[in-house]
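Folds abound. A case:
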Amino acid sequence: MAASKGHADVVVRLLGKGANVNAKTEDGVTALIVAALYGHVDVVNVLLAKGANVNTKAANGVTALYHAAFRGHTNCVKAIIGKGADINAKVADGRTALIVAALYGHVDVVNVLLAKGANVNTKAADGRTALILAADYGQTDVVSQLIAKGADVNVKSSFGVTALSAAKSHSDIVNILKAAGAIQE
């Protein structure tokens, strides 16, 4: 509860009294995962300093990095990566922190992940990449960043969807993709 509410002082006291920094709920969720989800960077930093495992996965495969990226908490992403998080870890549906950050338009998080070596062309279980999802959801700035970092503009999902076909209702993104060499089939 202290991690979800951002009470770093309470977390420090609990850990000082012997609380397990890597304790899990029935679903495998740790305090670090919760603090990252809610963007409590002070709590994240306390937990990391006390040895929290940055790569622990909940039952559904979610990590602290994934949750921080999902919610756009750039400072949490930086802190977690700084302690050695697996930047390309996948959740149950094959999505990575980069894919989910791109989907929700968190361009600052996307930039951090790419700068730290996230694979720009990783595919989720359905074959969609960060670029396909960003194009589909109208995330213009993210599309531009992904292309600048080498995203494959012609990759197809398992269902034959490309970034260009996904972007059909976003003319600005269609133009960006065509300028980058996307081929309409």
User: Anything to note?
Assistant: The chain has a mean pLDDT of 95. The longest helix spans residues 8-16. Residues 1-86 form a domain with the Serine Threonine Protein Phosphatase 5, Tetratricopeptide repeat fold (CATH 1.25.40.20). Residues 3 and 55 are 17 Å apart (CA to CA).
